[in-house]
Automatic annotation (TrEMBL):
NCBIfam families: perm_prefix_1. The keyword Transmembrane applies. Keywords: Membrane, Transmembrane, Transmembrane helix. It comes from the Bacteria. The keyword Transmembrane applies. The chain crosses the membrane at residues 81-101, 107-128, 155-176, 196-214. This is Uncharacterized protein. InterPro entries: Perm_prefix_1. It comes from Brevibacillus panacihumi W25.
């Protein structure tokens, strides 16, 4: 393969699965620019191999050319993202306290406590590192379209998961009652809790779509303002 074409393939390797017209047009544009630069350099007397090396070095990345990419202060973004995840985990831990009356609920409550500790430790480490200016101002490209797409899929999958969980729990616990038209007997508060908790537990997975939902907002919040940098 021609060295210039090979370089273009490497530049766009993250987007090879994206058959959009924008990506294909960008590939042709970048390749044409590289070929023109090599032609100019060789016309000035430079060896072709050296001209190719210089041309490819002039375009080390195409991230800034992708319309939906955003240059973001990635570590500041990550710190707030982890902070929000910690908040959700603590809320889930607090809300799950009444569920400790049943074994499964107690396990979930303890699990959220452990998760909160782990996320809290990561948050503290990132918060300390954020004092370093180089760490704080590190930039990376994040794709806004992908973030919105992931958010939408996350909500749909969560809705399907909740529906399946409710139907499955109902079928397992009350299938025979429904089939034979028998009344459900509840002897007391403890049995009511045992019946209700399997329905409640899947809703704690709401944390996942909520975290996906907040991602685009944080990307916009920590997007690099090129005008300010200039």
């Amino acid at each position: 393969m021609d060295p210039l074409q090979q370089h273009v393939q490497v530049l766009f390797r993250k987007y090879n699965r994206d058959a959009s017209k924008q990506i294909e047009d960008l590939k042709h544009e970048v390749l044409s620019n590289l070929e023109a630069k090599v032609a100019d350099l060789t016309a000035g007397g430079m060896d072709r191999e050296e001209a190719i090396a210089q041309a490819t070095a002039s375009i080390p990345s195409v991230e800034h050319l992708i319309d939906d990419n955003r240059s973001v202060y990635v570590n500041q973004y990550s710190v707030e993202y982890v902070q929000i995840a910690l908040l959700y985990a603590l809320i889930a831990w607090i809300v799950s306290m009444p569920l400790r009356v049943v074994g499964t609920g107690a396990v979930i409550h303890s699990l959220f406590f452990v998760i909160s500790l782990l996320i809290g430790a990561v948050y503290l480490v990132l918060l300390v590192r954020l004092r370093d200016q180089a760490f704080r101002e590190k930039r990376a490209f994040l794709n806004m379209r992908f973030a919105y797409s992931l958010r939408k899929k996350g909500w749909w999958l969560w809705a399907v998961f909740i529906l399946v969980s409710v139907l499955y729990t109902t079928a397992v616990r009350f299938g025979s009652n429904i089939w034979f038209w028998r009344e459900v007997q509840i002897s007391g508060p403890y049995q009511l809790a045992e019946m209700a908790i399997p329905y409640i537990l899947p809703f704690f997975s709401l944390i996942v779509p909520l975290l996906l939902h907040v991602s685009p907002k944080l990307m916009r919040k920590y997007e690099v303002d090129e005008d300010e940098l200039a």
